[in-house]
Amino acid sequence: MERPQNFGINPRIAVVVIILFHIVGLVGLMLPVTRPLFLQIVPWHLLLMFLVIVFGHNYINKKFIAFLVVTFLGGILAEWIGVHKQWLFGHYAYGPTLGTKVFDIPLTIGINWFLLVYATGVTMQRSRLKSMFARVVVGALLLVLLDLLIEPVAIRFDYWQWADNIIPLKNYYCWFLVSAVMLLAFEKAGFKKQSIVAPVLLATEFVFFGVLVI
C-alpha cells in the first residue's frame, strides 16, 4: 500500500539537511585539525543521507523497496566482483574510511550506490529527456563524470586504493555499465515524479567532491 505523499520529511527540510551537512563535512575534511574526526564519521554521513532520501521519497511502496534492495545488493555484488575477481573496475581494495566490511566490501558502498543511482534517476526523471534510453545513457555519463571527481578524493582519504596507484580506464567504462543497468531498473520501477530533494543531493555531491579535488 502506498503512503500519502506528505507523510515523509518535508522537501525543504531535506534540502537544508543535505546542503548543511555537506558544508560542515567539507570544512571538516579540509581542516587538518578536524580531518581525523570527520573521516571517522563518513559512514554516519552516508547513513544520514540514506534516511533523508528514503523518507523524502513520494509514495514508499513495494516497488521502491525492491529498487532499494536491488541497488544495494547489486552495488555490493559489483564491488565484490571488482575487489576479489578484478572483472569489474580493476585491481583495488577498500580502506577503513567507509566503515564496517563484509567480505572486504564496506556495507556503506551499497548505500552509496543506491544514493547515487536514485539521485541520478530522479534528476533524469525531472529532465526534458523524453527517451528512456537517453535518460539512462545521460544519467550513466553523469555518474562517470562524478566518479572522475570522487576517485582522487577517495584515494586521498583512503576510501579505497588502486594497485600501483593507477586508476585504469576499465574503472570508468564499468562504472558506466553498472550505472546504466541500475538506472534502467529505476526507469522500469515507474516511480511517480519525485521532489527536488534527490537532484539537490546529486548537485551537492558534484560540488563537494569538486571542491575537495582542488
From TrEMBL:
Pfam family membership, one: Caroten_synth
UniProt xrefs under InterPro entries: CruF-like
Listed transmembrane segments: 12-31, 37-57, 64-83, 103-120, 132-150, 170-186, 195-213
Top-level taxonomic group: Bacteria
UniProt keyword terms in alphabetical order: Membrane, Transmembrane, Transmembrane helix
Keyword Transmembrane helix: yes
Name of the protein: Carotenoid biosynthesis protein
